[in-house]
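Troubleshooting entry. Yesterday's outputs looked truncated, so today I'm pasting the complete records for two proteins to confirm everything comes through intact. If either block looks cut off, that's the bug. Protein one:
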Amino acid sequence: MAVRGYILIETEVGKAKSVSAAIQQFNYPGARLIAVDTVTGPFDVIAQVEADDLDSLGNAITEAIQKVNGVQRTTTCLAVRLA
């Protein structure tokens, strides 16, 4: 079953637009970008990513998103299905 995460991204000052644009080009095996938005508040960019499994999601975050120039910090919120 696929897992979905919301990656809350803090950027360097003045880098939100370029980080958002770079994440639009996101490509990582086993993971798919669902949406990316530049936002106001404590975070600068929020990306929604779906992956084949939790390991793929974690690797996509650490090996792709966190390496984007201007990303300072990420916080990941996993989506859950409550019955």
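Protein two, checking that the full record survives here as well:
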Amino acid sequence: MTTPRTPLSNLTADYRARDAAHHIHPFSDMKALNAEGSRVIVRGEGSWIWDSDGNRILDGMAGLWCVNIGHGRPEIAAAIQRQMAEISFYNTFFKTTHPPAIALAETLARLTPPQFNHVFFVDSGSEANDTVIRMVRHYWATRGKPEKSILIARHNAYHGSTMGGGSLGGMKPMHEQGGLPIPGIHHIAQPYWFGEGGDASPEEFGIIAARALETAIDEIGEDKIGAFVAEPIQGAGGVIIPPSTYWPEIARILKGRDILLVADEVITGFGRTGNWFGSETFGIEADLMPIAKGLSSGYLPIGGVMVSDKVAEVIIGPGGDFNHGFTYSAHPVAAAAALENLRIIEDEKLVERVRDDIGPYLQKKWLALGDHPLVGEARMTGMMGALELVPKKPSRTVVFPDVGKVGTIARDFSFRNGLVMRAVRDSLILSPPLTLSHEEADHLIAVASKTLDDTHAELKRLGLA
């Protein structure tokens, strides 16, 4: 006798009740979330996910910026199973290594920019940025300059949510809790032309924003600064794509100065911008490079810090013990998943596809959404973009009251329409899998357009448009 299947609506209610009883979610008001009920995702395939009510949803955020090769790849599952059958775990402490760690380190040295030939493995982007703080300070102390301990980062940047990563990031709500930032972190302006550029052109503003670093160096003193840390594109800050003049001016400012440059590639790595790394897209020559997310396409947690030859020769040589690490650094099963993920990206030429095919195809259609009466700016690089929602075009200074309310309304419409987009302030951001097809891109744009129409109609009803 076959057991009757539980109706999906009852199943969802059960999931939600159990979730509310025991699960505290990241970055969530749990009282409000429990009252509304969590969205329960039960399956994924390619660019799509399904919830517990059977709704098919296009995953416009690739999980959380990470599922570059799409959901449900059997090759990754097989690689994980093979590695589990050999050795499911061993650590890399105490003079020990294992084949997946060796192979992944070797592969990353080949794929990353030429100055990188070493990697320190971690489990996440947050841990990677904590490692950066420790490594930068250890590097300078080993060179006899322990006073060079200050790291400069940017307002509205995101570098993780641990004490170190959360301190490096410039997110005010995070700094309001838990005693952040830790000492020795200094924040400067972000290159956010749409929101902060004033009357300057994007090119003029890129220079202005970059020179905030020069001002900080002059005020703090080069002899006290260990590194400048920045994302090539600020992801969680709202897909802040810097003007074309920004990174060349940063390079000019740092040239000849004894300050390390850290490019946080946790989001922009592994094909997201149309090159293997955002550093290549923007001509950044970094000394340290945090990586995670697309390293395994999110199939298992793994990350790292790519270490340039300049830094490695100090850490490996006179540096002695680097008293830092994690139980699961270079976890063999996570490393095996990452290796298979990188093989897929290479074999299927996904980086080239983002650069030459699906990236330009999606970008053209995405930028056309800028004509909508609710959109003040549409921007996209590679496969990451944003739509700035405004009450009055073409003004960039007139904003909605109660910042974030309109973005949340639009995001909720997007989910109901079957597309995952994320709201940041009053903007919608997008970062779909690199495997997105042309047909899926067309569907994505159609749903995004409907979402804008629905939001505009709701704002008119509320008297906000």
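Both blocks look complete. Sanity check on protein two: The chain has 18 helices and 14 strands.
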